[in-house]
Amino acid sequence: xRYKDKIVLITGSGSGIGKAAAIAFAKEGATLIVSDxxxxxxxxxxxxxxxxxxxxxxxxxxxxxxxxxVDLMNFIVDKFGRLxxxxxxxxxxxDYAKIADMxxxxxxxxxxxxxxxxxxxxxxxxxxxxKQEKGVILNTSSIAGIRGLPNAAGYSxxxxxxxxxxxxxxxxxxxxxxxxxxxCPVFTVTPMFDPVAMDKMKSGIxxxxxxxxxxxxxxxxxxxxxxxxxxxxxxxxxxxxQTISVDGGLTA
Length: 252
Ligand SMILES: NC(=O)c1ccc[n+]([C@@H]2O[C@H](COP(=O)([O-])OP(=O)(O)OC[C@H]3O[C@@H](n4cnc5c(N)ncnc54)[C@H](O)[C@@H]3O)[C@@H](O)[C@H]2O)c1
Known about the structure:
Elements lengths: L6 E5 L4 H12 L3 E6 L2 H13 L3 E6 L5 H15 L4 E4 L15 H29 L2 E6 L12 H21 L4 E8 L9 H7 L3 H8 L8 H11 L11 E4 L6
Parallel strand pairs: 1-2, 1-4, 2-3, 4-5, 5-6, 6-7
The protein binds nicotinamide-adenine-dinucleotide.
């Protein structure tokens, strides 16, 4: 029960890593604010938590819409009076194309959701945490935030930006007892990264990607979530400004 009585926000918690994290944090006692652009999926996460005797509320928000992000943080303060842990996890994959073939729309959208969305969230989370004189922020970057990922320049650039924001904000607010870190997942089986669907588009691609990972497999979603649970807890109380790659050795 590492999160007993803690108020925890996870964006993009209607699916994949965010959903599994919301369920796991709630099991450890947290009160969850489940937020997603997809209302039905977000409400499903909340139902699953409540059916397991956990505490959760849904708030619909598109992280690339500044006013919605402001409304989300105001909702949290009005309803709970504090925000102990904020996990900025919502993200999109963007176009799978070499840069010459990448559309302007795809580039702009990927940057807006994955990078600017994290900026909008942190900008509005920090004042809440400054008032409490404590807080934890965890951003979901990617191995593509550490190294290049061919056919995904927009995604890779957007996730490198998340690493830059993480390190800088960590330095700005370390003295205020606000920790800011990022996890950098490798290929993790979720609706965003579905090896079966990928193989249908390009036969054999998933085996090729797997072969590049030193541990020769994809990550299980709980391997990301267990790292999040630890990194946001007091067990990691002196860790800030770090990017933790959960990647079977890929970025080594
Ligand atoms: N799955 C992987 O292999 C992998 C690897 C590295 C990093 N990541 C990152 O992990 C995070 C979670 O990915 P996932 O694999 O769980 O994907 P997912 O598609 O299963 O979940 C992403 C969630 O974000 C939500 N979302 C998308 N755009 C949004 C917006 N504008 N506002 C609010 N919510 C929005 C979606 O509705 C969805 O519920 C993402 O940031 C992703 O880039 C995933």
